[in-house]
């Protein structure tokens, strides 16, 4: 049964101290659906269309692993996360980031504030019934013409998800509710995004680039 948002927040509060160390080993045979984690972040960061001076918001920033890969490109980084402990860990690693408690359905920034919104391995924590509202919230904080880069554990079809669950076996977490590519693409369209481009970056990972109309 999927976790509630409160259970997810408590999980990441407990996990914050060892999160980066634990995910550093997500390329071995016991990695489960996170296998390829570092490579996925590398690919996604290379594809993010940013330029010096742009404002970037990372939703579900965690310890800042994705946003940190953009710092050398001269962007201003803000981040939100529902876990205060994760934000404390991020603040210790990246004191220049502007960080606030929040989540996909309640982003504590003004409408039209950001040139770019990014997110990695976090959207699946949003309960399915709240995902359209979450997509609309991502669009709200973007400037007209702004872009979204979202990376997560996702699957192209129910058959692909079922095959991954069978292959991963006991390492599969039944408390997770991973999105399907087509379902999320439709939600992004309904939320007003256009021009979505999808890429599979690892056996269980997909990224999407989409843009808010100018």
UniProtKB/TrEMBL annotation:
Superkingdom of origin: Bacteria
- Methyltransferase domain span: 56-146
Q: Which residues form the signal peptide?
A: none
Query: From the UniProt record, which GO molecular function terms apply?
Result: methyltransferase activity
**Entries under PANTHER family matching the protein:** METHYLTRANSFERASE
Name of the featured protein: Methyltransferase domain-containing protein
Q: What is the lineage of its organism?
A: Bacteria, Bacillati, Bacillota, Clostridia, Eubacteriales
């Amino acid at each position: 049964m999927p976790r509630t948002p409160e259970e997810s927040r408590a999980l990441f509060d407990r996990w914050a101290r060892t999160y980066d160390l634990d995910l550093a080993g997500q390329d071995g045979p016991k990695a489960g659906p996170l296998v390829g984690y570092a490579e996925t972040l590398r690919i996604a960061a290379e594809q993010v269309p940013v330029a010096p001076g742009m404002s970037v918001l990372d939703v579900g920033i965690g310890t800042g692993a994705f946003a940190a890969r953009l710092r050398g490109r001269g962007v201003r980084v803000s981040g939100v996360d529902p876990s205060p402990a994760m934000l404390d860990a991020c603040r210790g690693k990246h004191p220049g980031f502007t960080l606030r408690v929040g989540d996909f359905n309640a982003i504590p920034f003004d409408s039209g504030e950001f040139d770019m919104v990014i997110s990695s391995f976090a959207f699946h924590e949003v309960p399915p019934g709240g995902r359209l509202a979450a997509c609309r919230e991502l669009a709200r904080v973007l400037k007209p013409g702004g872009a979204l880069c979202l990376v997560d554990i996702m699957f192209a079809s129910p058959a692909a998800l079922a095959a991954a669950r069978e292959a991963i076996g006991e390492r599969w977490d039944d408390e997770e509710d991973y999105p399907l590519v087509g379902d999320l693409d439709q939600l992004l369209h309904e939320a007003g995004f256009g021009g979505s481009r999808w890429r599979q970056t690892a056996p269980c990972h997909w990224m999407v680039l989409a843009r808010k109309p100018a």
